[in-house]
Amino acid sequence: MKKVLIIANAFPPYHLVGRLRTTQFAKYLPENGWEPVILTPTSTYLWEKDDAVLDEIPKGLKIYRAYLPPSLPVIIKNLTSSKNRPPRKETKSSQQEKKVEAKPFKNVNLKKILINCINGFQKFLNTYILIPGYHILWIPFATKRAIQIIKKEQISVIFTSFPAYSLNIIGYMLKVVTRVPWVADYRDLWTDDLSRDWLPRWRKRLERFLEFVVMKRADRIIIVSGQMVHIMLRNFPYLNNERFAVISNGFDPEYSKIIITNYKKGTSFKIVYTGQIKNFTHSKFFFAVDELIKKNDDLAKKIEIILVGRIVETEKEKIFQELNKQNIISRLHITGWISHAKALEIQKNSDVLLLIIGSKVPNPETILTGKIFEYIIAQRPILALVPEGAAKEVILKTRTGIPVHPENLKGIKNAITELYKQWKSDSLFIQPDWTEINKYDRKNLTKKLAAILDVILNKK
């Protein structure tokens, strides 16, 4: 059987939703004549880690791991974790030390000063040293390991899936050294990535040039939405349309059968958001809820907003500032990080699932996150606060929710009011278009990938 080397940073036990694309391609490629071989970072220093998702790895899959040095936040986390410190024995002197008050420093928060210094140094590294990103540190280890794997496993095609952006550099280097065809999988844009608008202008220009050099070597570039293709062609007009193929995110049909259960209405009207908590300040959702509960006592008593996940550090202050201006704190519950399985269970038992894609981020029309498909197979109505673009198209075509522009305050209020009326009358259900939904079946999407790999191999 032909072999493809899949190089990806998002792979179990990494628990964020991007891992599903890699694991599910690996699951269904053998049905299409390709044996996947995985190269991924060592898991020792992963920040987002959940050993429970290791069960998603297909049986018999060959997995190689290359050393990834720990990031500074992970080093600090390990050093300061109480689990890593031996218990301190109490002595008379140590007891006396506790009673001593360091008067000159009693108003100084040394821990806060240390954290600010560390964050400042990390920002310096991220801006000036780690270009194009943290995984630049993985390049020498991954490249060496990949060359060994290519020889040992007789690899026919190399497939890199990112972000992280350094994986494209790895793919480029392997293509030059081994002359094995290379496919670059863009789950997100690189130099137009919505989460990197903080980069200084000189850095953006440098990375745009780096992307230009690297992508010239790719035999095929896979993109998750047609809108992303337009942006890539605008940025790199030397690339013709034939170099691109669109394979969107999707859902595992076998997995969806497991998680779909009968919905049971509860005593509260639950609006649930799962995933990294961000972009809330790019929408009028909190304002809409605040205005509704001021005017509707019945809704105020029944509504419950559940945010499942961890607030992105850079947005934490802005989110809480906005929440403090509203009257919804008592109706809000933030779970913090929980396992993926538990998050899916909460999705299934929600009344409404909340999706937010802020319109103020760069190129919002291109975003087609894997979370959309998790929501779709949960079979609960989706309140999709999204701009024009790929996400809105999917919601409308699959008939799985109500799309509203994230800054349309009146539209959001009307949507919540309508969903609440349906909930009260026991008619809060959707009638999905399964013909359209099945286009995003991972089995079908993997067939498209296998066909692309076949074409590239035949051209070799």
| CATH class group of the largest domain | Alpha Beta
- How much helical structure, as a percent, in the residues? 40-55%
Q: Give the strand line-up of the largest sheet.
A: 3-2-1-4-5-6-7
Mean pLDDT: 85
* Distance N to C terminus: 17 Å
What is the CATH architecture assignment of the largest domain? 3-Layer(aba) Sandwich
Task: Give unreliable regions as ranges.
Answer: 82-107
- Could you give me the name of the CATH homologous superfamily of the largest domain? Glycogen Phosphorylase B
**Number of structural domains:** 2
Radius of gyration: 24 Å
Q: Any idea what the shape is?
A: globular
Question: Helical region count?
Answer: 18
Structure characterization notes:
The protein has 460 residues and is α/β, with parallel strands linked by helices. It folds into two domains: 2-71 and 132-250 and 441-459, Glycogen Phosphorylase B (Rossmann fold, 3-Layer(aba) Sandwich); 253-437, Rossmann fold, CATH 3.40.50.2000. It contains 18 helices and 13 strands. It has helices at 19-28, 72-80, 92-99, 110-129, 139-153, 166-178, 201-215, 226-235, 253-259, 285-295, 297-302, 316-325, 340-348, 371-378, 390-398, 409-424, 434-437, 442-459, and strands at residues 2-8, 34-41, 62-66, 157-162, 182-186, 220-223, 244-246, 269-274, 303-308, 332-336, 352-356, 382-385, 401-404. The strands form two sheets. Strands 3-2-1-4-5-6-7 form a seven-stranded parallel beta sheet, sandwiched between helices. Residues 82-107 have low confidence and may be disordered.
